[in-house]
Amino acid sequence: MLTGQASSLIQGRRARVAATSTVNGHLTDLDDSLSARNLEMNAVLGRIAATAQELAHYHSGDEEGIYLAYSDFHPYLLGDSSCVKELNQWFAKQLDTGPFRLVAEEGKSKCSWVSLDDISNIFIRDLEKSQHQRVSELQRLRSIFGTSERQWVEAQVENAKQQAILMALKSQVSSDEAHIHLDFHSLRRKHSELVGELSNLFHKEEKLLSETIPDLCWELAQLQDTYILQGDYDLKVMRQEYYIGRQKAFINHLINQLARHQFLKIACQLEKKNMLGAYSLVKVIESELQAYVSATKGRVGRCLALIQAASDVQEQGAVDDKDNFLHGVRDLLSIHSNAQAGFSTYVSAPGIVQQISSLHSDLMALQSDLENSLPEDRNRCINELCTLIQSLQQLLFASSTTAQPILTPRPLMKELDEMEKINAKLSAAVEEVTLEHFKKNEIVKHHSQGVGLQRRVFVDFFCNPERLRSQVRELTARVRALQVS
């Protein structure tokens, strides 16, 4: 039954996903078509606005020139009008009044397009007054201004050419106005078509928003058998549960890390106590050695004299057994020889003094390290551990149950890994120190037996060498038997 319900839920989810994808596809297509229509409408409106601006500028009458669609002839028309005006003024001034009027009248009489009756009437009217005067004046002016007639004819020809060009331009302007009128009507018609298409698209969009999309949403709700937002709520709940689980795991990790650091702190405190005890022991040994050194300084001269006396004979290292002071010094030196894992050889007083001086130099070096480098390293390690513990406590107690967990950043993870490695190294170092303490305790435990054995061997070496040889043979045979077995 559970399998059937799970399969039905999966099929319902697939149906919902398919329906939502179909609706999203329809909406995407509608958005694309609307955006394309809007782009076309914007282009058409831009052209309409440009054409309307040009027409308004043309009808405003701001310019005196003629409006043309492809070129502007306003400077040409201004030059033509000024030229015609200057020619008219010059001809009116030079040929209508004054002595040039006679030259003009004679030139008109010779032209084919001038009426002869007008000229004859003018000549008849003035003939009776000053016939001789006119003839002489005409001859004189004709000799001076013989070229005026030719210039006037050329000016008239140029004026006729300008008038022909002006008529051609006016015809071109009229044709351009007709084209503009046709374009304006076509733009209006296209604008009306686009407005109709936009209204249809708006109606379709309103229909989709009001009918189709609610129906599809209702079908999705029926397929899911619950509200539409139930899926989002479930997703939020699952996400919150996942966050809570991660937060619990992180809290457990921090608790374990805090326990490790507490244990490390306790171990550091114990090691500090052990170091203080060792330091006090070293101080006691130093005081004893200083006492022995002060006691031996008085006997240095005697020892030097004995060395000088026995320089010809090889020294065997014999020491009187009745000398308790040298026996005490040898006992102290035997501790160092046992720590070096070797058998001690009993030497004479100068050899003992040399060993004491070497031990004193080693002691001074260790004391300088203990006073200078070890406290600094210990304080730095303790400060770093305290800072790290405080930061971990802040991270542990800063979060709340309602807030989302703050996941561990990458640098903190690296620092945690480095801290794990340091903890491992520190554990190994603690184990090594513990092992050394154990060895030291064993050495101290068996010290008395070793001292007695060393004394017997020393005495047998000088007093009874045969017994020492027999003991060596027994030990050699025992070792060989053990090797064979």
Automatic annotation (TrEMBL):
This is HAUS augmin-like complex subunit 3 N-terminal domain-containing protein. GO terms for cellular component: HAUS complex; microtubule; microtubule organizing center; mitotic spindle. GO terms for biological process: cell division; microtubule organizing center organization; spindle assembly. Its main location: cytoplasm. It comes from the Eukaryota. The keyword Coiled coil applies. The keyword Cytoplasm applies. Belongs to the HAUS3 family. Residues 1-158 form the HAUS augmin-like complex subunit 3 N-terminal domain. Keywords: Cell cycle, Cell division, Coiled coil, Cytoplasm, Cytoskeleton, Microtubule, Mitosis. It is found in: Cytoplasm, Cytoskeleton, Spindle.
